[in-house]
Amino acid sequence: MKRTTKVVNAMIAATTILIIISVFFAIRGFSVIRNTTTASGQDFLLQSTQYVAKIVQLSMKNRHQSLSYLTINENWTSIESPMTLIDNQTSLVPFFKSLNGESETLIYIDREGTPMNAISWDSKTKRIGTINTENIMPYLEKDPSLTKMIDSPAAEQNSDSYFIEKQAYLNFYHAINNRAGDVIGYLIMPLKLTVFYQNFIQDFELEYKGYPMIKDRSMTVVMHPVDEQIGLSIIDGRKELFPTLHYEDLQRLEKYQLEHNEGSLTYKSYWWDEKTPREAEKIGAFEWVDVGMAHWVISINADYRERNDEIINFVIVLFCILLLLLLLIAIFTFFLRSFRKQEKIEEENKHLIAKHQRQKAQHKLEWQLSQRNKLETVGLLTTSIIHDMNNFLTPIIGNLELLMQEYQDQPILHDDLHEVLQSAQKGDKLLSNVMRFSRESDSIQEVVDISSAITVAAHLISGIIPKKIPLKINVQQQMGLVPLEEIDLQNVIYNLITNAYQAVKTSVPHPCIWVTAKKVTEGHPNGPNRNYVILEITDNGPGVPAELQKQIYEPFFTTKSADEGTGLGLFAVASIVAKYDWQLDLRSSPQDGTTFSIRMPLTDLTL
């Protein structure tokens, strides 16, 4: 009996020690997972912040370029009255429309900074009007960088940010030169940063609660989803509105941001987009950027607890399991001390362990099945959405083509419709590429006359290339037959011609594209001669840099802007070439342009 008691006590002690060790490792594991998740969240937010920073810098540069184009298109050196521009609204109306409400004012000052003329845009009536120079003085008097710009003409594209009645602004500058090249004045465009934020930043989506914001070098809020926050310093200004809140962590955040160019950290703050600010633990990232004379810190924050709900749930489950184990030990001890039935207790213990292992294995299988179902659901949802969007785009494209035919006698409207049609066609092409690579389908190949197929595809695609860029087609006739899907050949030719068009449309004075195809015969020492078709698409553009030639076939890799390419064109070409086991070669240099060569074996079959 005593021996049994000692064994029981030893087992209880050992089990208790095991649970204590398990609790220790559970707590340590929680800490490691928590730190890892926090670091992952910070990295994600830092990448998102860098992305938003690029958007801000590129968008601001685009606004300055628009002002430059306006200055080039209008003869500002001959302006004696703003009515000259008001009467000729050919450039001004599209210019203001393109700004989407971000600016409704243009100011012309002389070389010494004296305002001479000012015009305004009424977004409701779509008309240009004049402004009394007294009414535009706040834009000049509040501008902290105007004097520096006048002392150093064209040094920067824009001013530092400033505030007028709790609204943040930024002035864009462009020097006006006379025919001799001397600066005689400046064109100034005040930009409403609140509207700019709404157009480009506010809709930036986060997986968790949070938002992006921008502050200047004095830590005053320049852009924020809450209008009341604009113009406030993140500590002193907010203390005036909410004196009972705690700002110790915000002081730490401010100091850290002022001492580092970029970074991430966790801190306690409040959700300022709520009527009554709610205290929250946040995870945030930031990056300092220069936009003209403005030096801003762009930051994105997210709810720390929301990001770590899974860890908290894991800890709760873990401690519940440990409590359950403690309860089982208590029950186990009770039965051992009460009945002294060692064999029965051991069997029950083995049974419980086996049951726990089965439950663990079952839970793992259920989790794997759940993950697989999620992936299948995402695939089905993607296919369904693309199918529906194709259904939406088809009537849009058809009606746009009909409208273009109907309004051929109105060049401006016809050009606008053509631009919309091109965008719709690009969207339709992108959806087709995504659909093509997001589902498996059986290949239905036919033996086609390759000469006719290449000629037809090239002539079809030539219709979308502007007439000013000649497309020269030289296809050898009766080359033979090739087994393929014609849509694949059309996709290859379409993407290569489109790529060639984008390479030459603005880079060379006399652009041209060539499509050639010829039959070649090669001898083989171990068999009969083989016949091939060599399809080449050539342009006289600047060529592909050597360091990029290995990357151009990667999906989503592109050197073009977001409006010109998706990075899927050459990836689609390479995928189709691999599908048929063809050979794709690239020859490119700044002197000779670029040639994509596709080698296709001919079949001995006949139609």
UniProtKB/TrEMBL annotation:
<keyword id="KW-0418">Kinase</keyword>
<keyword id="KW-0902">Two-component regulatory system</keyword>
<dbReference type="GO" id="GO:0005524">
    <property type="term" value="F:ATP binding"/>
</dbReference>
<dbReference type="InterPro" id="IPR003661">
    <property type="entry name" value="HisK_dim/P_dom"/>
</dbReference>
<keyword id="KW-0067">ATP-binding</keyword>
<keyword id="KW-1133">Transmembrane helix</keyword>
<dbReference type="InterPro" id="IPR004358">
    <property type="entry name" value="Sig_transdc_His_kin-like_C"/>
</dbReference>
<keyword id="KW-0597">Phosphoprotein</keyword>
<dbReference type="InterPro" id="IPR005467">
    <property type="entry name" value="His_kinase_dom"/>
</dbReference>
<feature type="transmembrane region" description="Helical">
    <location>
        <begin position="311"/>
        <end position="336"/>
    </location>
</feature>
<dbReference type="InterPro" id="IPR036890">
    <property type="entry name" value="HATPase_C_sf"/>
</dbReference>
<dbReference type="GO" id="GO:0000155">
    <property type="term" value="F:phosphorelay sensor kinase activity"/>
</dbReference>
<dbReference type="InterPro" id="IPR036097">
    <property type="entry name" value="HisK_dim/P_sf"/>
</dbReference>
<feature type="domain" description="Histidine kinase">
    <location>
        <begin position="384"/>
        <end position="604"/>
    </location>
</feature>
<dbReference type="Pfam" id="PF02518">
    <property type="entry name" value="HATPase_c"/>
</dbReference>
<keyword id="KW-0547">Nucleotide-binding</keyword>
<dbReference type="InterPro" id="IPR003594">
    <property type="entry name" value="HATPase_dom"/>
</dbReference>
<keyword id="KW-0808">Transferase</keyword>
<keyword id="KW-0812">Transmembrane</keyword>
<keyword id="KW-0472">Membrane</keyword>
<feature type="transmembrane region" description="Helical">
    <location>
        <begin position="7"/>
        <end position="27"/>
    </location>
</feature>
<protein>
    <recommendedName>
        <fullName>histidine kinase</fullName>
        <ecNumber>2.7.13.3</ecNumber>
    </recommendedName>
</protein>
